[in-house]
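Tutorial handout. Part one gives the primary structure; part two gives the three-dimensional structure as tokens.
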Amino acid sequence: MSAFLGPIHYWMYDKIRMQEELLRRFAVKGEQSGWLDSAMSFVDDENRPLEEIIDEANIHGWLSARIESVEKRYAELTVKILTGHEERLEELKAIAYGLGEEQAAAADSSAEQCYKRIEDCTLNGMPCDGVNIVTDKSEGHFSWEQRFDVHGDYWTQAGGRAEDYYALRNQLIAGILSQTKFTLTIPRPNEYSLCQG
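Part two.
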């Protein structure tokens, strides 16, 4: 491991690659279903170890640029798939759920362990952005607030709807929770809770 790279940088890279994988699966579905001719042009298949590709003189900037790139391509591809064909959202939600299932939290996970697994698999800007703030936690319950939206602008700039991003993310999370006793609830906009189902 590089002297300059710490666990948080590898964690962020894994989160970026998770979103890249979801994007790749949408692109494959788009081409196989004949929805798009060249969906794979949105895909970045880079999977070399982080220490081989990161700019160690600008670690934060490099990771931020990768986040912006995958968020932009993910929004552009998905909006292109859905424009004029909102019914396709259900098929994309099934793909997101399936990827979540592959990353599922262990069946005996506590609420906090489930939240950690969700955080491992979802991208919410850089840690220093402080997007999610934990508001309540116990063995059987975990709540957090999303203080601001780091995703919606990518979707509106691509001509789409931010709510489609959240519908897909919620299915990814449902897949992650699929083996556990917890479900995701959204009591108010931008407030999330893991409750025993």
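Part three, for discussion. The first helix runs from residue 7 to 32. The longest strand covers residues 132-138.
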